[in-house]
Amino acid sequence: MTTFSINCNNDDEPVLATRVHTLIVGSGAAGLNAAVQLKRHGIDDLLIVTEGLKMGTSINTGSDKQTYYKMSLCSGDGDSPYAMAESYLNAGGMHGDLALVESALSTRAFFNLVQLGVRFPQDRWGQFPGYKTDHDPARRATSVGPYTSREMCLALIAEVQRLKIAVQERCYVHKLLTVKEGDNLRVCGALAVNAQGKHIALAADNIIFAVGGPGALYQTSVYPAVQTGAIGVALEAGAVAQNLQESQYGLASTQFRWNLSGSYMQVIPTFFSTADDGVSDVREFLRDTITEAPKLCGLIFRKGYQWPFDVRKVKDGSSLIDLLVYNESVIKGRRVFMDFRINPTGFEINALDSEAHEYLARSGALQATPIARLEQMNPGAVELYRTHKIDLHQVPLEIALCAQHNNGGLAANHWWESVNIKGLFPIGEVNGSHGVARPGGSALNAGQVGGIRAAEYIASRGNKSAFDLNDFEAAAEAALRDTKWFLKRCKRSKSSLEEGASAMRARMSRAGAQIRSAAALEEALEAAQQAFAWLQVEGCAVAGKGAAVKALNFRQLSLAQLVYLETILYYVGCGAGSRGSAMVVKDDGIDHPHPEEWLMEPENPEFREMVLESVFEDGATRNQWVGRRPLPVEESWFERVWADYRAGRIF
Ligand SMILES: Cc1cc2nc3c(=O)[nH]c(=O)nc-3n(C[C@H](O)[C@H](O)[C@H](O)COP(=O)(O)OP(=O)(O)OC[C@H]3O[C@@H](n4cnc5c(N)ncnc54)[C@H](O)[C@@H]3O)c2cc1C
After folding, report:
1. Is residue 547 part of a domain?
2. How far is the CA of 320 from the centre of ligand 1 (A)?
3. In this structure, which residue's CA is closest to atom 17 in ligand 1?
4. Within 13 Å, how many C-alpha atoms sit on residue 128's CB side?
5. How far is the CA of 288 from the centre of ligand 1 (A)?
6. How far lies 510's CA from each of 482, 516, 525, 565, in Å?
7. Among 471, 500, 524, where does a domain finish?
8. How far apart are CA 452 and CA 444, in angstroms?
9. 75 plus 101 within the same structural domain
10. Ligand 1 site, residue 556, Cβ cutoff 6 A
């Protein structure tokens, strides 16, 4: 690591620049693991820059039984990379090579965590048993409890510290710098600001971009509030994205953001809604549509293991619950709660369907109330809310249908290098490797696999420098001028950042989330375009500590929102229809999910064979469908693979 300074304008203070071989942006589970892997491959000239080791989704989130997905490792469960890849590919929209790599490396990534001390349960014979998760036929899921990703981060942070990898916290990256390399772009560094608003220039031959999902784009969200995301930074630099339209939504509590999956649903709480004050006009609204109590109880029970909103289950499956909650809260404007103190009207334990009854009976959870059943089945689930000052014995839980994960993100090849910017390696949630639906737990696997792949590839290229430092300086100076100009505007601006950000989040939750229509998207896009154009010229008023970070963050988020909305509108216009976790409504839709006035456009299965790519160029988003890369068919003849491996022909 070397340092030098850059003069942007002669009258300004010089900006401190650091040159490093590989820069890692972000310290979630994905970024931390990439750093560890690079160091193990002998890349010592490394720097992690991050908003903070305690920021991001991985270390701040979890769920009833937070899931990690890997190839099955228990006796009798025959499994293979190809069988696992098929599970990834089933719902469509995912490249075959990425599915194979994520499957093939899943055990390696998993055992790395085991070796680092993450306590995934094993039996007395050393087997790691699994359970079935969403979109998984083969009991590949495992968990250490509600905080799997946090435990992963803690183990990885300890390893980063043991390996003495440099970490710079409170450092916000807001620009990626590129140079031309032939017809392509190559990354050469980044610009950041620290909490005091001081500019930092970072020159790097490789950048691992591990900034997580776009949490701050949504108003109704279960992303932790500290995870804003920074995909807009890469989009502004011209990085190609894919499948931005594919996200995952599900029921979560809003006062304390937490997924309501697993036992929270399996104990069959009561759902009710109220007027705006949260107490008057109480109605058990689900009963208006699902009139038979045993049926309603069965659907609530199944929400436990069918957590994400899934359009295939809206007609009379468990996602009808999600849809009715959305209708009640967003369309009717009422507040919705889950109450563990009382049973749904008409609940009778012996009238439950056989699946729900058997599950509760085998769990010893046939108590009289949902809270008693929850205390029996999962006391930690009650305790968790208590530690966040919500006593489920005393109060109901306010809920909403929330954004939780972006399956899409930046487009990269099977070594996790961006498809159009050399040296840029998007990994973790910001990498859009997933398709229409993904098995539960595969986000955490993908993040670990991406780090292993990127590190191997970078190490194979050795330590030689990839660009001319003069080109970096020119790119950094231009970007600094633009940044300083924008921040000066912000100092004079009369437009409130808070109001702008709140309008942005509301737009996305209204038009770009789980219920989508061309009309709502057009309206939202027009508003987003106007807001972005205004922001570019007028800036946004923000003062006090961290003002520069907040303003630059809002700028990249606003750009990201444009690209997301344009992409979703394009998707809807193509007629790919309702799929995954998003329902497209159309006046001439042919299906009739509840409520009756929503006519759902059915899925057009032809689009499963394609991936939607997006790139932000000359101030607009260009979208195109590309055929999905097939699942590679390899003979895998040992002697040939060995020869290729020895000669480095695998890269
Ligand atoms: C409630 C909930 C439950 C979930 N449950 C599961 C589950 O059971 N199984 C599963 O597989 N997945 C689950 N997920 C998804 C999974 O947790 C995330 O996809 C994953 O943790 C993301 O890891 P990451 O390392 O990519 O990003 P993050 O952990 O979000 O880390 C991003 C890092 O980048 C930093 N950063 C961001 N922008 C910048 C910037 N501009 N400059 C510097 N630093 C920056 C952040 O501060 C942070 O350090 C869940 C998600 C949520 C919200």
Report:
1. yes
2. 28
3. 58
4. 20
5. 38
6. 32, 8, 12, 11
7. 471
8. 13
9. yes
10. no
Per-residue pLDDT tens over the stretch 272-324: 999 999 999 999 999 999 999 999 999 999 999 899 999 999 988 999 999 99
List pLDDT tens digits, range 8-61. Answer: 766 678 899 999 999 999 999 999 999 999 999 999 999 999 999 999 999 999
Asked if residue 294 and residue 225 are part of one domain, the reply reads no
Cis check: omega of the bond before 595, within 30 degrees of 0: yes
pLDDT the model gives residue 225: 94
Own/partner long-range contacts of 195-198 (Cβ < 8 Å, ≥24 apart): 195/170, 195/545, 195/546, 195/549, 197/487, 197/546, 197/547, 197/548, 197/549
Distance CA 642, CA 346 (A): 65
CA of residue 407 to ligand 1 center, whole Å: 12
Q: Within this chain, do residues 449 and 524 fall inside the same structural domain, yes or no?
A: no
Whether residues 23 and 154 share a domain: the answer is yes
Task: Read off the CATH number of the domain in which 143 is found.
Answer: 3.50.50.60
Judgement on whether residues 370 and 265 belong to the same structural domain of the protein? yes
Contact 88, 433 (CB under 8 A): no
Query: What is the atom index within ligand 1 of the atom nearest the CA of 60?
Result: 29
Written as one string, the DSSP assignment of 286-344 is HHHH---HHHHHHHHHHHTTS-B--GGGSSSSTHHHHHHHHIIIIIS--EEEEESSSPP
Residues 477 and 458: their CA atoms lie apart, in Å, by: 27
User: 69: CA distance to ligand 1 center in Å?
Assistant: 16
Number of domains in the chain: 3
**CA dist., res. 577 & res. 589, Å (int):** 9
- Residues 293, 335, single domain; the answer is yes
Residues 381 and 318 placed together within one structural domain of the fold:
yes
Within 600-647, strands assigned E span 610-617, 620-627
Residues 442 and 514 in one domain: no
* Total-model pTM: 0.96
Containing structural domain, residue 374:
249-403
User: Is position 238 within any domain?
Assistant: yes
